[in-house]
Amino acid sequence: SAAKFGINTVIRIRVYPTDLTYIDGANSNEAGLSEDVVVEGGIPLDGDIDGETEHNAISRINDRFEILDEITGAVATDDIRAVIVSGPPGIGKCEGVMRKLERTGFLNKTFGEKKTYEVIKGSMSAIGLYQKLFEYSERYQVLVFDDTDDVLMDVDTLSLLKSALDTSKRRILSWNKESYALKREDVPSRFEYKGGIIFITNIDFDNCRSKQLKPHLDALMSRCHYISLGIKTLRDKFLRIKSVALNSDMLADYEFEPDVQIEILDYIKENVNQLKELSLRTVIKIADMVKMKQRSDNNWKRLVSTTLMKHS
Fold it and tell me: CA angle, 64 as apex, 63 and 68 as ends, to 5°?
């Protein structure tokens, strides 16, 4: 309305992001997130990108996952109490952690029928967290929180996590509210926590600018080791997916010839901007269709285009 009277008005609005998950891209904006990189015809893999060859990029990414493997093993053997693993979805963070914990399970012979670790997904109440921490409170037991970022937003759950991750010699957890649930499950109102914790998250802790969440993330980071997997561009994400697909048993059950695996990856590279999701799950979905169409007309690309591509 000011324009009708010839008045030029400038209104400055500061916006703080609440979506703290990774956005594929290379250029950071003022909000601390990344801007999408759109490349006609797919991802350029030939030659250097920002001075880094494809081979060097894969080596850099693989090195981060090797470090993750080492530290996961250290949590399982109680050499490290806790670690936060940060990276975009769909690159095998949780699967790698679970494989390592399975391999180190032979060290934990003292529990009999008890599990040595559990992966927790989704939301969780404070009392549910307290019960789970008690269930896995012994030395060599590990809780893995996979994309349960909402526990960071609740005062009670965050308080429990701070106590469980404290660097003091003894970590004592207490529940001072009356609870029939705890009595029913024979969970004490006070116990010593000796277990390990692994957080797997899509939140980029390094670039969080949310005033509401940052203090909570800082509190966790001060108590944990922190690994950023360093995958912040579409190219990095694709190279990670390519490396896993070609160098693991991920596609072994399909019994594809090597040229078929290459064809699938080339198709993903060429259509990366049209795919609804760029992840290891996408490779599996395409492999399912390739296997199905090998028995008929082999026209799997028509199915992929219909089911996995973005449509106007």
Answer: 115
Beta-carbon contacts of 156 under 8 Å, excluding residues fewer than 6 positions away, are 126
Q: By C-alpha distance, which of 195, 232, 197 is closest to 36?
A: 232
Condensed to tens digits (0 to 9), the pLDDT of residues 223-238 reads 999 999 989 889 999 9
Question: Residue 5 carries which side chain, given as an amino acid letter?
Answer: F
Distance from first CA to last CA of the chain, Å, rounded?
Answer: 36
Per-residue 3-state assignment (H helix, E strand, C coil) for 69-134: HHHHHHHHCCCCCEEEEECCCCCCHHHHHHHHHHHCHHHCCCCCCCCCEEEEECCCCHHHHHHHHH
Q: pLDDT digits over 245-294, tens only?
A: 999 999 999 999 999 999 999 999 999 999 999 999 999 999 999 999 98
Q: Is 189 exposed, middle or buried (0-12, 13-18, 19+ CB in 10 A)?
A: middle
**And the tokens for 115?**
């599990």
> How buried is residue 19: exposed, middle or buried, by Cβ count under 10 Å (0-12/13-18/19+)?
exposed
143 contacts 161 by C-beta, under 8 angstroms: no
- Say which residue, 159 or 280, is predicted with more confidence: 280
**Pairwise CA distance, residues 205 & 214, whole Å:** 8
Give me the residues paired with residue 201 across strands. 86
The closest of 205, 101, 90 to 144, measured between CA atoms, is 101
Q: Tell me: the pLDDT tens digits for 37-68? A: 444 445 555 556 777 888 899 999 999 999 99
Nearest to 193 by CA among 143, 260, 256, 128: 143
Name the strands in the sheet holding 82-86, side by side, starting at the edge strand that comes first in the sequence: 117-121, 142-146, 196-201, 82-86, 225-228
- 3-class secondary structure, 190: strand
